[in-house]
Amino acid sequence: APDLFHVLDVLQMCCLSGRSGAIQMVKESKSGIVFLRSGTIVHAETTAARGREALFEIVDWHYVEFAYDRSVRPPVETILVPWDEILIEAVERGKNAGATEEQRKRA
């Protein structure tokens, strides 16, 4: 079985340690990449989305396999807010989506 890590743990570790480069994340058949510059999340991509929406999608995967490559640079910079703010926003969106799903099941 693969070693799985929580997406938020991986991103926080890389941001707090001031990393630059790319983090490739994989969950089952899904994959995404998050780009960092000096400990700041500057871009993300999945097969379905780019920028903030891609980051939110990746955070929703919860546990992933990952690989870090410091030599990769972002093709563009689409995320302009501090990393901690966008991760809090991603978690809040996930909670709200979960609450909405629960309400739908009860109806």
What does this entry look like structurally?
The structure is a single chain. This protein is an alpha+beta fold. The protein is 40% helix and 29% strand. Strands 1-5-2-3-4 form a five-stranded antiparallel beta sheet, covered by helices on one side. α2 (52-60) packs across α3. The N and C termini lie far apart (38 Å).
SSE layout and pairing:
Layout: E1 5-6, H1 7-16, E2 21-27, E3 30-37, E4 40-46, H2 52-60, E5 63-69, H3 83-106
Antiparallel strand pairs: 1-5, 2-3, 2-5, 3-4
Helix pairs in contact: 2-3
- Overall residue-averaged pLDDT value: 92
The count of β-strands is: 5
The span between the termini is 38 Å
Note the beta-strand portion: 25-35%
Per DSSP, the total helix count is 3
H/E series: EHEEEHEH
Flag low-confidence runs.
none
Q: Strand order, main sheet: write it out.
A: 1-5-2-3-4
Helix % is 40-55%
What characterizes the major β-sheet?
5 strands, antiparallel
Backbone shape: globular
Alpha-beta classification = alpha+beta
Radius of gyration: 14 Å
What's the gist of this structure?
The protein is of the alpha+beta class. It is 40% helix and 29% strand. The chain starts with a strand and ends with a helix.
Keyword list:
107 residues; alpha+beta; globular
